[in-house]
Amino acid sequence: MPTLNLFTNIPVDAVTCSDILKDATKAVAKIIGKPESYVMILLNSGVPIAFAGTEEPAAYGELISIGGLGPGVNGRLSETISEILQIKLSIDSSRFYIKFYDSPRPFFGFNGSTF
C-alpha cells in the first residue's frame, strides 16, 4: 500500500507520465520491500509551485506506507525519486522536497475496510 503522491509545475505528456509511473512503482516497491501490486503512484503535473521564490521547475512528494520506512530507506527513496524526476523532467534535486509518513494500519483504507 505504499502511495507516492507527486506534484510538479512541469506539464507532463502521456508518454513521460507513464514512464515516471512505471519507474517510480518499481523503485518504491524495491526499496520498501513490498510487491508492486500494492504500490500506488499519483502524478499531478502543471501544478502552480513556487520554490525559493521562483517558478522554475520544481516538485513536491509525499510517500505514505504502513511500515517499511526509516532513515536509511527514506534516504534511498528520496535519492531515487529525485533521480527519476531529474532524468524525466529535468528537475534539479535541490528543487524537490519529499515527506514520509509511516501510517498505522487502521489509518489506511482499502477495499471497503482498513488494513
TrEMBL record:
Record has Secreted as a keyword: yes
InterPro entries, per database record: Macrophage_inhib_fac (IPR001398), Tautomerase/MIF_sf (IPR014347)
Catalytic activity as recorded in UniProt: L-dopachrome = 5,6-dihydroxyindole-2-carboxylate; 3-phenylpyruvate = enol-phenylpyruvate
Keyword check for Isomerase: yes
Listed EC numbers: 5.3.2.1, 5.3.3.12
GO molecular function: cytokine activity; dopachrome isomerase activity; phenylpyruvate tautomerase activity
Gene Ontology CC annotations of this record: cytoplasm; extracellular space; nucleus
One Pfam family named in its UniProt record: MIF
UniProt entry keywords in alphabetical sequence: Cytokine, Isomerase, Secreted
Location(s), subcellular: Secreted
Family: Belongs to the MIF family.
PANTHER family recorded: D-DOPACHROME DECARBOXYLASE, MACROPHAGE MIGRATION INHIBITORY FACTOR
Name this polypeptide is given: L-dopachrome isomerase
Originating organism: Arabidopsis lyrata subsp. lyrata (Lyre-leaved rock-cress)
